[in-house]
Amino acid sequence: MTTARPVGRPLALLALGALPLAVMAVFFVLPVSGMVSRGFSDGAGPVLDVLGRPRVHRVLWFTVWSAAAATAVSVALGLPAAFALHLLSWPGRRVVRAALLVPFVLPTVVVGVAFRQLLGESGPLGFLGLDGTAAGIVAGLAFFNVAVVIRTVGAAWESLDPRAGEAAAALGAAPLTVFRTVTLPALRPAIVSSATVVFLFCATGFGVVLTMGGLRYSSVETEIYLLTTNLLDLQAAAALSILQLVVVTVLLALAARVRVATAVRRTVSRPRRPRRGDAPVLAATGLLLAMVAAPIATLVVGSLRHEGHWTTANYRALGTPGTALLVPVTDALVTSLRTAVDATWMSLLLGGLVSVVVTRRSHGRAERRLRATFDGLFMLPLGVSAVTLGFGFLITLGSFRDDPLLVPIAQALVALPLVVRTLAPVLGGVDDRLRQAAASLGAGPLRQFLTVDLPVVWKPLLAAAGFAFAVSLGEFGATSFLARDEHPTLPVVIFRLIGHPGAMNYGMALAASVVLAAATTVVMLLVERLRVPSIGSF
Fold first, then answer.
1. Where is the ABC transmembrane type-1 domain (predicted)?
2. Can you spell out the DSSP letters for 37-71?
């Protein structure tokens, strides 16, 4: 009995993980390896030639510095809001926290359209001359990612032991001195972790740069897209994809190591009432809320205007095909919803199986190694951008492009790490002795899950479903390569509309962006009510 356990349990883990492993092998390892093979099809020389091009140098430099600048802005704006929303108690705090979460789940193409509307010549901030500039792109990227800082640093701030700061204050230290000498060093791992994740997301902010950068600015992701769709230079695109894969994986590994350093035992204290000295922090949070609301409000107002008049014509036009589209926008919305449903159940099935495998108690070194390998393997899609994944699908699975499940599978892989990081910590916190007690009473594995795990995990499961649905609904990077012209998703339609001249096309793009933003916002507000922290836990 004891000799069979070390062999039997790993075999059981392999059996449980067989389906996720098969999916990863066919729909992740094969496309990525195919992309790498395309890049090195003629040896390393062509890859080095591509990386030596002056334009590639400009693209790399813009990607790095714009992501770094957006990360700095996100951290600067997010720290005061993290304190105000996680450590202070005031009316409307939860509503504001949910509102500041919304930009993170908005489709990147919607963020780009919203900022173009805000910063354009006819927009409220058009006088600043930021439309189509690098500063405008940085603002859009920071807008998109500030929620990561708020969630990650805010959660860490809640868990700090307040006695150290109270002791320093009792010895006469000013509040700023307490923050600089006590609080900030304790928060540094969380700040570094959130900044690493934000930099990763900014460097892969495909839709924002593609929509706002035009022909003047290009990131690595948009360059891969242009090389593939416009210039048909697949080898150059593969070379850039390989470079991005290496850099993003290194960033992901760094974020994982810092995340381990931030893993503290949570002793969350109850938020206190604001004091007079908290006024600057509350004011900064109010300013951030206004900055977040401005692009969205401008987008909504623009969708209700046509030829200088208030009208719903842009929304009514969504039901008819135009010169830029083969199908009505309403059909694209239905396609997006169906695709999101399929991607959600796929990611939940795969992510649930992976979470069960990596969180069960290990018996022996072989099991620990196997679980660690599983955990790392299924985090890999986070280290590969959606554009690279879509490009890999295109060159290796192109013959299956007409298969209606190909887009949901790609979107499910994009959402998979988020699902695992939502479910695994909760399942890992379940006392294994409860399962052993249920087993001793004759309960099988399914019965154990229903009676022990499900009562604990059902809220995180719903939250994971909401995140996966929202991610799928707005996914644009991989879908832009795989969506068929007769069955486009809504983000693809929005990008096509803004790329065609005409006031009606642009108005329809604004209206479609509002519809897509509203759908993702409703989903995320429902997730926020579950109060399950996920963002920033990578």
1. 60-255, 333-527
2. HHHTBTBHHHHHHHHT-HHHHHHHHHHHHHHHHHH
Tokens for 49? 């030639």
> What is the domain extent for residue 404?
310-538
Domains contained in the chain, number: 1
Mean pLDDT of the region 442-463: 76
The model's pLDDT over 60-87, given as tens digits with 9 standing for 90+, comes to 899 999 999 999 999 999 999 998 888 8
CATH number at residue 536: 1.10.3720.10
Contact in structure between 432 and 448 (CB atoms under 8 Å): no
Q: What are phi and psi of 206, to 5 degrees?
A: -55, -55
Per-residue pLDDT of 323-365, as tens digits, reads 666 788 888 888 999 999 999 999 999 988 888 888 776 666 7
Q: How many CA atoms are closer than 13 Å to the CA of 484, on its beta-carbon side?
A: 16
Q: Following DSSP, what letter does each residue of 174-220 receive, concatenated?
A: -HHHHIIIIIHHHHHHHHHHHHHHHHHHHHT-HHHHHHHHTTT---H
Helix axes 220-229, 206-213, angle to 10 degrees: 70
> How many whole angstroms separate alpha carbon 182 and alpha carbon 167?
10
Is 491's pLDDT higher than 60? Answer: yes
pTM (predicted TM-score) = 0.80
Report d(CA 20, CA 24) in Å as an integer.
Answer: 6
